Amino acid sequence: MSQAVLNVNGLTKSYQGKKILDDIDFSINGGESVAIVGKSGEGKSTFLNMLALLDEPDDGELHFFLDGGKRQITLTKANHWRIAKADISEEVIRKNIGFVFQTPFMLTNFSAYYNIALPMIVAQVEKCARKERVNSMIKKLGLLERANDTANNLSGGERQRVAIARALVNKPILIFADEPTGNLDPENAQNVLAAFLNLCQEQSTALILVTHDHAIAAKADRKMCLKHGKLTPCS
Amino acid sequence: MYLFDKTYYILRDITFNRSMAEVVSGVLLVTLATCGLLVVVGLSNGVDKFVSEAMKKARPVIGTVVIKAEKTGTNLSKETVAKLKDWEKNQTMEIGEKSYAIDGISWISEGITNRRYMRFGIETDDEEYKKIHPTIQAIRGDDELLNPDFGINYIDGIDIQHHRFTESASCPVFEVIVNQRFLEKLENKFENLAELTTKNTQFFVTFQQPIGEGFDKKALPPLKLPIAGVIESREAPYPDMFINYWVARAAFLKSPTKVRWHKSYALQFCDAEGNRLLKSLSGAPDDWCTHPGGQLSLSWKDDSGKTILVQDNSSEYQRVGCNIQKELENVRYRKALIWLSDFENADRTRIVKLIHENVTDVTADFHGQSVGKSLKRTAGIIEIFANWAEVGLMMLTIFATMTFGFGHIRRKRQDIGLLKACGLGNKTTATIFLIQIMLVCAMGFIIGLVLVWIGLPLLETEVRSVVQELTNQAVPKDVENLLLISGITLRDTALFIFFGMLVGSIIPIIQAIKVRPAVGLRTQL
C-alpha cells in the first residue's frame, strides 16, 4: 500500500455565514487518483483550493507527507497556514503540488515554453535540467510546434495542455485538477484527459480531480461526492 | 527565482504587457510630475538665486573703482594704517566717540591723483598733500549710491586740466560722476540723460586728455570712460563735479524733500591724524570751480528758499564735510570705503573690496525703495516655495507611483495568483512588482528630466528678462545657466524622486503580497 501524501482533518470553510465545507476528513495516497463530484456551488473548487493552499480554510489541519513520507508538514490555522520552519519554505510544498484549473490561466505575454517552465523557474531548477524536462513535457503533450508561441496565440485545447504540462513539469507528488476539460469540446477533452491521466500514472502522481462529469470521474481510482459540505464516498 | 529569471520576467512583462496603456500612462504620469515639479523647483530655486545674484551684482558702486596705479601717492602714518587695519579686522569704525559696525573696509591704495593738492585750487606742498586724502566714505545700506544706475560715484578731478585720466598702469583711473554741463564741456552730448542709465547699454564719455602739466609732457590718447551713471540735478547751479556732488549730498541731508540726490552724506575728509581736512583749506579756489566769479563761494537752498549750505572761505564750508557728526549717529554703516594714498608699500595696490558683499538689506532703488523691497519680499516667498518644492516633488512622485502601482497590481492580480500558485513567495512577488513599478516610474523620471533639461533654458530666457525688468538692471552674465546649475540639483532631485517612488510603491506592493492565489486567479479583467 502506498504512503499517504495528504491527510485532511476537520477542514471547514464558510462564506458569508454559510458553511461550504463542514468538518471534512480526507486522505489520498501516492499515485492514487480521486475524483470529487458534486453539483455546481457545492464547494468542489473551494475544497480543491484549500488543499492546494490557494486559499485558507477556516479550520482544520492539512498534513503533507513529502519525500516518500519522510517529512511531514502540518498546516493549521494556528500557524496561519504557513510553514514556520525556516529551512522549509512554502516553495517546498508548492514544488510538490501541481494545479490544473478549469480555465487554463497563462502568463499571456510569455511563450508556451515559459509557461510550462514556470514552476521550475520559481523553484530555481537549473536551466539545463529545466530545459530537458520542459522539452520532454512539450513532446509528450504534442506542443512541439507551438512551444515558442505566446500563450495568447494558443487554442483552448493547447492552452489546457500547456497547463497540464506546467502542473506536471516539476514531477509533483500531488496534482489538483479542477474541471480540467470543462472548457473543451468533447473530442479535445477526451484527448487532453487521456494525456493527463497517462502522465499522472507515468509519474505516479496522486491526482485529485474535481468534476461534475461522472464519466470522467469513473476513470479515477476513487470517487467522492461533496454534498452539503460533507465529503462522502459515492454510492 | 534566479536573478536572471526575475530580470527576464520583469522586463518582458513590462515590454509585452497586455496592459501596455497602463504602463504608458504610468510613464507619462511620472513624466508630467517630474516635468512640472522640476520646473517649479528649478524656477523657484533659480529665480531665488537669480534675483539674489542680480541684486548683488548690480550693486558694484564704489567697489568698482578701478585702481590701476601702483606707484604714486603718499604714505599714511603707520598709526593710521594700523588703525584702519584694526577697523577692518574688528569690523568696527570709530568716529569720534562712536563706534559703527561695518562689514568691511575697502582699500584704495593709491592717491587720488598726483595733483591732489590742486584739488581745491590750493597750492600745497608735499607735506600738505600727504595730509589731503579723504579717509572715509561711509555708505549707508540704503544709500542710493548702491544703486547700479549711479555706479561708482567717486569724484575726482576738480579741473580736468589737472586731472590725468589715463589707462596707464601708473595712474589711477576712477569712474566719475558727471553732470550735463560736464558732458557738454567734453562735447559728449546726450539728448536724453535718462538714456545713460539704461540698463542694457554701456555709454562712454571721451576725455581728450591734455598734455599734462607737470606730467610727462606727452599727449595722451583720448580716454574713453564708461559712464556708470548719471546724477541729474535740476537745481545744481554749479557744474563742478566734485562740489556738485558734495554739496548735493549735503543738500540732500539737509533737505530730503524733492531733491533727487544721494542720501549718502557721510563724506568726510580728514588728514592722517584724523583732523578734518577742510579746516586746512584756505584761500580762494580759482581754477577748480566754474562758479561765476570763480570764487569759492557756494550756496545751496532748499525748496523753501532757505539757505542750507554756504560754502565760502569761512568756516561755513566746514559744515559740508564736518558738521555731520551728529548725523552719523543715525547712520547704519554697512561698509566703509577707505581711500588711502598708499600703505607702507606702494606696490601693494589692491583692487578695492566690493562694497556690496554681504550687504543683506538691499532695498535701494533709484525710483524709491518700493521695487527693491517688493522684489526682496517676492524673492523671500520664492525661497520658501523653493525649499518646499522638493517636498512637493516627492509627494507628487508618491502620488504618481501609487496611482500607477494600484492600477498595475490590479491588472496583474491574475498573474500574481498564477505565480503564487506556482509557488512564488511573497518576498519575490514584492521584489518583482516593486522593481516593475519603480522601473516604469524611473523611465518617466528620466524622460521628464530630459524634457526639462531641454526646455528649461528657454524658460530661463523668460525669467532672465522678467528679473531684468523687475530689478531694473542688467542680469550679470556670470549667472547664466543658474537655473540648471543651482536650481536643479540632479542628485537631490533623483533622491527625492527615488524616495517618493519607494514610498509610493509600498501600498501597491502590500496589495500584491496580500493577493490570495485563488482570489487572484478568479479575478477577471
Number of strands of chain A: 10
Strand order of the largest sheet of chain A: 6-7-8-3-9-10
Radius of gyration of chain A: 17 Å
Measured as a percent range, the helix fraction of chain A is 25-40%
Number of helices of chain A: 7
Secondary structure tally: strands of chain B: 10
Radius of gyration of chain B: 34 Å
Spatial separation of the terminal alpha carbons of chain A: 23 Å
Q: Which word captures the global form of chain B?
A: elongated
Provide the low-confidence segments of chain A as ranges: 84-88
What topology, given as strand order, has the largest sheet of chain B? Answer: 3-10-4-7
What overall form of chain A do the CA principal axes indicate?
globular
Give the SSE layout.
The complex is a heterodimer of chains A (235) and B (525).
Chain A: E1 4-15, E2 18-29, E3 33-37, H1 44-51, E4 59-66, E5 71-76, H2 90-95, E6 97-100, H3 112-122, H4 127-140, H5 156-168, E7 174-178, H6 186-203, E8 206-211, H7 214-217, E9 222-227, E10 230-233
Parallel strand pairs in A: 3-8, 3-9, 6-7, 7-8
Antiparallel strand pairs in A: 1-2, 1-4, 4-5, 9-10
Helix pairs in contact in A: 3-4, 3-5, 5-6
Chain B: H1 3-15, H2 20-57, H3 78-90, E1 92-95, E2 98-101, E3 105-108, H4 126-131, E4 133-140, H5 180-185, E5 204-207, E6 223-226, H6 241-254, E7 267-270, E8 298-301, E9 307-311, H7 318-321, H8 325-328, E10 333-339, H9 370-411, H10 413-421, H11 426-471, H12 482-487, H13 490-514, H14 517-522
Parallel strand pairs in B: 3-10
Antiparallel strand pairs in B: 1-2, 4-7, 4-10, 5-6, 8-9
Helix pairs in contact in B: 1-11, 2-9, 2-11, 9-11, 9-13, 11-13
How would you characterize this protein structure?
The complex is a heterodimer of chains A (235) and B (525). In chain A, helix 3 (112-122) crosses helix 4 (127-140). Chain A is an alpha/beta fold and 235 residues long. Chain A has helices at 44-51, 90-95, 112-122, 127-140, 156-168, 186-203, 214-217; strands spanning 4-15, 18-29, 33-37, 59-66, 71-76, 97-100, 174-178, 206-211, 222-227, 230-233. Residues 84-88 of chain A have low confidence and may be disordered. In chain A, helix 6 links the parallel strand 7 (174-178) and strand 8. Chain A contains 7 helices and 10 strands. With 525 residues, chain B is α+β, with helices and mostly antiparallel strands. In chain B, 44% of the residues lie in helices and 9% in strands. Chain B has helices at residues 3-15, 20-57, 78-90, 126-131, 180-185, 241-254, 318-321, 325-328, 370-411, 413-421, 426-471, 482-487, 490-514, 517-522; strands at residues 92-95, 98-101, 105-108, 133-140, 204-207, 223-226, 267-270, 298-301, 307-311, 333-339. The interface between A and B is medium-sized, with 29 and 26 residues.
